[in-house]
Write a structure and sequence with these properties.
Layout lengths: L2 H13 L2 H24 L10 H11 L10 H5 L1 H9 L5 H7 L14 H13 L2 H11 L7 H11 L9 H11 L4 H14 L9 H17 L7 H14 L28 H8 L3 H14 L1 E6 L5 H12 L7 E5 L6 H4 L1 E3 L2 E5 L2 E5 L2 E3 L1 H11 L5 E6 L6 H5 L2 H6 L7 E2 L6 E2 L5 E8 L10 H4 L3 E4 L4 H10 L5 H14 L16 H20 L6 H7 L2 H4 L4 H4 L1
Parallel strand pairs: 1-10, 1-11, 2-7, 7-10
Antiparallel strand pairs: 3-6, 4-5, 8-9
Helix pairs in contact: 2-3, 2-9, 2-13, 3-5, 7-8, 10-13, 11-12, 14-15, 22-23
Length: 554
């Protein structure tokens, strides 16, 4: 952080209303006192275990100094105790189950294992150096525990040592120093690793980012105007909504989809690299990314073989910064249901008192699980790829999520029909769907669903095939001309033959089989109702086209 930025921050603090700091700091100091009293009363640092109430109280204390997503609370304390301690439910657990049978038989959230949670939190408080890294990573594995929860505990345990690092404080500091790229964060984290006497290499990307911002905030706390980390967080919480940065020569970071992620090569996240990977012009790549940024839900549609799924995977990998675990791919079909996608009742066999019984718990679907993880990791991006989008009954699969697709925030939660739990699609989740326009049996997409998606058309571009051939040492001009001849005969662009049929290893030795087993049968199907189909098809039999591909097969 250069001196110009420091002076700007100091000047901004001097101009702020001192009453704001006084009132806000008093509230934060009171929360710190309550957390220390809770830790001491329960003897947590010396082997004591927290109860569900203690855990709930600790979260309530955290909520006095920063926002905590309510959707993670049932995961932490369990569904019943969440209703007791956060919603004022006063009946027994048995009554709760009777009133909410969906939670019977082990369904829903049981909460963290209190003994392990208490031990791991105490280890986090007591550890230093390499042990601190191990304790941080271990504690982060508990259900519902993310960076904000961890940082909240550490901050209220020792405000002189640990700042509060969450989405609000990061947004605040970026108003001054700009969005930090991978290299900058890595340098900050490395500096802090040494300062913390951590001799091992950093093992976890979340921990790396925590160290990076810990180092940045440490610089802020050295300013005379900011007396401790309570003041730092109070300032950043304020500026995230009220401060407009001055024009200055600082690195404001890369665009939203070009912000590299830890542990991945920087080239992975550049537009040039992505454009080369998908064989698109830079302008086309930028257009696709802009659509995703604008709408967050995009459908790639076009004839078969135009690379829709291939591009979807590459774009998704670009968005998540190479974190392939943050990408989920599914394929819709006629039997795919809301229960598969969001949640539903699933029969489950289990052994109870020596007897096998069938239970019917509520199980989350693939998309709900992805959203739950995304909510816990707001600093990361997640992508769902839906292949063959309109092969399923789309309206039934998405159900009441039409609203959530358009309005993405915790303030716009909906209650799910089975579990009755609040749900929303977080802002860091993107959907890329693919549609084959050549399949005549596909389900139509209604206008309500269409309004929630942007549509990007994939055309057959043989120039892409030629470029791919050059990169792979092949001359494909004659093949490109043949594809164009076929598509001229087809006439309807929704049914054109695409280029990805041919973008394969060992194309020269396999072109005969590709044509005879894939291209020609496709043409037979397309011309099946054509009175002149025989003469049209005869032109494109392998025996009648192979002479046009001499430069490829010889």
């Amino acid at each position: 952080m250069n001196e110009e930025i420091k002076e700007e921050i100091k000047e901004y603090v001097r101009q702020m209303d001192t009453n704001y700091f006084r009132e806000d700091i008093e509230r934060r100091l009171e929360a710190e006192k309550e957390m220390r009293e809770l830790i001491e009363r329960t003897n947590l640092l010396n082997g004591g275990n927290w109860s569900r109430k203690d855990l709930s109280d600790s979260i309530k204390i955290q909520k006095k100094v920063h926002n905590i997503n309510n959707l993670v609370l049932p995961k932490l304390v369990g569904n019943y105790y969440y209703n007791v301690y956060f919603k004022g439910y006063e009946k027994s657990e048995e009554e709760f189950i009777k009133e909410n049978p969906k939670y019977d038989g082990g369904s829903g959230h049981s909460g963290v294992d209190l003994e392990n949670f208490s031990r791991d939190l105490a280890d986090l408080f007591n550890s230093e150096g390499d042990d601190f890294q191990d304790a941080y990573i271990k504690f982060s594995k508990h259900p519902g525990v993310g960076k904000a929860i961890i940082s909240g505990y550490l901050h209220l345990f020792d405000l002189n040592k640990f700042p509060l690092i969450n989405g609000a404080s990061v947004s605040g500091i970026e108003k001054f120093i700009g969005k930090q790229d991978h290299k900058s964060l890595k340098n900050y984290a490395e500096e802090e690793r040494k300062r913390q006497n951590i001799t091992q290499q950093i093992k976890d990307s979340d921990f790396r980012n925590y160290l990076a911002y810990l180092n940045i905030f440490r610089e802020l706390s050295t300013l005379e105007e900011l007396k401790n980390y309570h003041y730092v967080d109070s300032l950043l919480w304020y500026v995230k909504d009220h401060y407009e940065p001055k024009v200055k020569n600082v690195d404001m970071g890369e665009s939203e989809f070009n912000s590299p992620v830890v542990n991945e090569t920087e080239s992975l996240n550049t537009l040039d690299s992505l454009s080369r990977d998908i064989y698109f012009e830079l302008d086309t790549t930028e257009e696709i990314l802009s659509l995703l940024k604008l709408k967050q839900n995009v459908v790639f549609y076009g004839p078969p073989g135009t690379g829709k799924t291939y591009v979807a995977k590459k774009v998704a990998k670009h968005i998540v910064g190479g974190k392939e675990n943050n990408i989920k791919l599914i394929q819709f079909h006629q039997n795919y249901s809301y229960e598969d996608f969001i949640e539903g009742i699933r029969p489950e066999s289990k052994l109870e008192n020596g007897t096998h019984i069938i239970d019917y718990p509520i199980k989350p679907g693939l998309f709900k699980r992805l959203c739950d993880v995304a909510i816990e990791k707001p600093d990361e991006k997640f992508v769902l790829i839906i292949d063959e989008f309109n092969r399923g009954n789309i309206s039934k699969i998405f159900g009441e999520l039409l609203y959530s697709l358009e309005y993405r925030s915790e303030e716009n939660t909906i209650d799910l029909p089975y579990s009755k739990e609040p749900f929303y699609i977080p802002d860091n989740v993107y959907i890329i769907a693919t549609m084959n326009t050549a399949d005549k049996s596909l389900t139509r997409i209604d206008f309500a669903m269409r309004r929630r998606f942007a549509f990007y058309k994939f055309n057959v571009d043989t120039k892409v095939l030629i470029s791919w051939g050059i990169e792979n040492g092949l001359v494909l001009d004659s093949l490109a001309k043949l594809i164009n001849d076929v598509n001229t005969e087809i006439e309807d662009e929704n049914f054109f033959v695409g280029i990805s049929f041919f973008m394969r290893d060992d194309l020269s030795s396999n072109i005969k089989y590709i044509w005879k087993s894939e291209i020609y049968p496709y043409l037979e199907e397309f011309f099946i109702d054509d009175l002149d189909s025989h003469s049209r098809l005869e032109r494109f039999r392998w025996e009648n086209v192979k002479h046009k591909l001499k430069d490829l097969i010889e």
